[in-house]
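Standup notes
- HV: blocked on the assembly model, inputs below
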Amino acid sequence: MLAGDSSLIPIAGATDVLVHWPGNLEAKTRSYLDLSGLGELRSMQWADDTFTIGALTTYWDVICNEQCAQAFPLLINAARQVGSVQIQSRGTWAGNIINASPAADGVPVLMAYDATVVMQSCEGIEEIPLDEFYFGYKQMRRRTDQLVVAIRMPRRAHDVEIFEKVGARRAQAISKIGLAITHSQDGWRIVASAVAPTILRCKAIETLLEEGSPVRSPDDLMAAIAKDVSPIDDIRSSRLYRERVLARILYHDLKGIVPSFV
Ligand SMILES: Cc1cc2nc3c(=O)[nH]c(=O)nc-3n(C[C@H](O)[C@H](O)[C@H](O)COP(=O)(O)OP(=O)(O)OC[C@H]3O[C@@H](n4cnc5c(N)ncnc54)[C@H](O)[C@@H]3O)c2cc1C
């Protein structure tokens, strides 16, 4: 159906799609493709070296999974901070990726775990690393005939796993800043949200950590942060607040863990 009609909009939990309905006449005239009958997409598969969640897996499915709490605790941490229980039980991780909000909470932790987006169309399967998936505000490497069918993460031992969400309150809040940090034998992953047109890895901060450059205060992180992010002033926060709070969270989270943070 997607191959035959490029205007069709897939619906999973509909928690993002339906928000646009009340005042948007155009949204009401579009055609939607309900995915809820595709039971095989609501799954979690554990292999020796990978963990794969189907595209209809909700936040609540993950919160309830004990193996996930052990192996991927940041997924639980982020899921618990998405909206409310009602949103957590309808909203999907795939919907969070495709909605492509720069302030999303699911995407940062998936990216910090090196997730890959698995898409399928009549032409076959395509897999794209999540940290290469976006190329601009709400712009992504998905064709309209492609359905996200799964999200896959490598199973690794991590010695650092941190997720921070800064919002106006503890529930039902859109992030002013989000931060996911992991460290494994494959290196540091520092992923920030709400500080650029897309959620992104902070490569300058990652390099600073890999090189062990001394960091004595949040100010010592500002030059690298300026290279990585480009926040805006909007109704939720200001550019200056976002940059400074990002530096402070990074510094205080990593001090005591990273020897170069003194
Ligand atoms: C009250 C409220 C609070 C919220 N709070 C938060 C929050 O705290 N943090 C946060 O990150 N988000 C929040 N959200 C946004 C939303 O709940 C999440 O982004 C959720 O993950 C979206 O998933 P969904 O399954 O509902 O997506 P849908 O609304 O069904 O779809 C979202 C987009 O993804 C596309 N899509 C869905 N599945 C597929 C697929 N398999 N293949 C291709 N395209 C697909 C749809 O076409 C659409 O473009 C909130 C929303 C509401 C209404």
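- HV (later): unblocked. The CA atoms of residues 133 and 141 lie 5 Å apart. The mean pLDDT is 96.
- Next: hand off to the docking folks.
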